């Protein structure tokens, strides 16, 4: 299976991890291995970038930007449309590689590639809608308007859990605006990044255009730092932990650059006594279990109304007992492995801390073979420190509430502010929730996980800065220019200022 997948995606046993229009030679370079969390076996090796490699990538990115940014936006959109078509052709092979390399179930692997296709479609339409305002001028015979221009080469640093979709949220929108992209993927998912880079740049090569999607694989402590400190990258979009995000923010702010930070989530789902129990049960289970709890939008806290507390938990535990944990390439599997041994240890450590702080395990709490773990439900109280933190694992903390005000206080009681949900058929409760949730994403009668690309994605508080994907998130990848045109035969000044000369 692995060799078959690698062959379809033009991958070999040892692959170059640096693309600057050509793939950097492999000989004499440091190697890292990609291991599948499914069975711990090595899939293939990848070279990582040195400083000279990085400098070559940035040089070529600047050259490509000069060409790409001059192409009319609708023409750029047509190239992105063809990239989406190319991804459609490679969807199954790329989805299987995602599953093989990061362990998410195959339907989620397919969903990830479909997200790339969807954002490409969105970017095609966007290429004809890069609108600026026309503003009424206070001066006669003047035009006042906004213009939006590409930023330049931008840096995108992604995490393992969405090894290609999150990159595309940034890359295709940026490309529609006129930017080029330098990508540093997670070293836990290098093969997916290489395959994706090959697919998307093949379209540009077919049109005789320079590459606009560059790849530089390396450690965060080297390549990540180089990018954060590099003034030639006016924007850094970083997805990862809050702790690392703070460091990136400091480095970019020091050079007065721009950032988009998609950091930790600690998302709550509120289930009212007025909810549709079937919908709520499915929404909570999916939110807590999808991708083995390794989504930034994973449901990590469940806030249950006291009237339905016991009944709902009984039903949820039955769901947990019946889900299949195992090889994510098998069609009936719902929960695959955690990404690696380090993730398993964090799972175990969080459970130990929760119990030490007074939590009670209602289900799970055990490690299985390899990187597989039991999804876990823990009865908790708001003062527990561990519930204020994000653990990238299928651990669900449960709380009880009596009033909607109390539920929102619990929802907002953590440092993170990414996604939130309420399950209720009461209009007043739903509207109160939407008005008072402090998260960037607020859902009624649907899961905290599974955002659509049409809306801007991102959070508040420790979750980060900025937005990706849909809405008007494209403005983060462009520079705004306020333009004034005087077509009169005089020079009237704003605010009625007089400045007469002979």
Automatic annotation (TrEMBL):
Residues 23-482 form the Aldehyde dehydrogenase domain. The keyword Phosphoprotein does not apply. Its EC number is 1.2.1.3. SUPFAM superfamilies: ALDH-like. The active site is at residue 262. InterPro entries: Ald_DH/histidinol_DH, Ald_DH_C, Ald_DH_CS_GLU, Ald_DH_N, Aldehyde_DH_dom, ALDH7A1-like. One of its GO terms (molecular function) is aldehyde dehydrogenase (NAD+) activity. Keywords: NAD, Oxidoreductase. It comes from the Archaea. Belongs to the aldehyde dehydrogenase family. PANTHER family: ALPHA-AMINOADIPIC SEMIALDEHYDE DEHYDROGENASE (PTHR43521:SF1). Homotetramer. This is aldehyde dehydrogenase (NAD(+)). It comes from Thermococcus aciditolerans.
């Amino acid at each position: 299976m692995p060799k078959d997948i690698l062959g379809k995606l033009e991958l070999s046993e040892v692959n170059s991890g640096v693309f600057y229009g050509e793939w950097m030679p492999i000989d004499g370079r440091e190697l890292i291995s990609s291991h599948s969390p499914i069975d711990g076996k090595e899939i293939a090796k990848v070279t990582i970038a040195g400083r000279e490699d990085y400098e070559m990538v940035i040089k070529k990115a600047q050259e490509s930007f000069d060409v790409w940014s001059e192409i009319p936006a609708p023409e750029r959109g047509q190239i992105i449309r063809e990239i989406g078509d190319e991804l459609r052709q490679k969807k199954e092979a790329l989805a299987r590689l995602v599953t093989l390399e990061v362990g998410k179930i195959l339907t989620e692997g397919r969903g990830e590639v479909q997200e790339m296709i969807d954002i490409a479609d969105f970017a095609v339409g966007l290429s004809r809608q890069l609108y600026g305002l026309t503003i009424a001028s206070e001066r006669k015979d003047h035009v006042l308007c906004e213009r939006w221009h590409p930023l330049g080469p931008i840096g995108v640093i992604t995490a393992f859990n969405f090894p290609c979709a999150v990159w595309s949220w940034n890359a295709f929108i940026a490309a529609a605006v006129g930017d080029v992209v330098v990508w540093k993927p997670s070293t836990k998912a290098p093969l997916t990044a290489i395959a994706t880079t090959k697919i998307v740049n093949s379209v540009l090569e077919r049109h005789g255009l320079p590459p606009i999607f560059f790849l530089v694989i390396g450690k965060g402590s080297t390549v990540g730092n180089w990018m954060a400190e590099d003034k030639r990258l006016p924007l850094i979009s970083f997805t990862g932990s809050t702790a690392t995000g703070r460091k990136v923010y400091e480095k970019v702010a020091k050079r007065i650059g721009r950032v988009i930070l998609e950091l930790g989530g600690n998302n709550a789902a509120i289930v009212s006594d007025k909810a549709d129990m079937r919908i709520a049960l499915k929404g909570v289970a999916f939110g807590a279990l999808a991708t083995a709890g390794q989504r930034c939008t994973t449901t990590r806290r469940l806030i249950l109304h006291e009237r339905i507390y016991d009944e709902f938990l009984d039903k949820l535990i039955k769901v947990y007992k019946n889900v299949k944990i195992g090889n994510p390439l098998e069609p009936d599997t719902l929960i695959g492995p955690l990404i690696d041994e380090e993730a398993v240890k964090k799972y175990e450590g969080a459970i130990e801390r929760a119990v030490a702080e007074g939590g009670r395990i209602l289900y799970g709490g055990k490690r299985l073979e390899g990187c597989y773990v039991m999804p876990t439900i823990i009865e908790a109280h708001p003062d527990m420190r561990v519930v204020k933190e994000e653990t990238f694992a299928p651990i669900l903390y449960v709380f009880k509430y009596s009033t909607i005000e109390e539920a929102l206080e619990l929802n907002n009681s953590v440092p993170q502010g990414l996604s939130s949900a309420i399950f209720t058929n009461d209009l007043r409760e739903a509207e109160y929730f939407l008005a008072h949730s402090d998260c960037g994403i607020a859902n009624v009668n649907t899961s905290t996980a599974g955002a659509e690309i049409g809306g801007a994605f991102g959070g508040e508080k420790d979750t980060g800065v900025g937005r990706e994907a849909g809405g008007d998130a494209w403005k983060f990848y462009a520079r705004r220019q306020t333009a004034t045109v005087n077509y009169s035969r005089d020079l009237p000044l704003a605010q009625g200022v007089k400045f007469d000369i002979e």
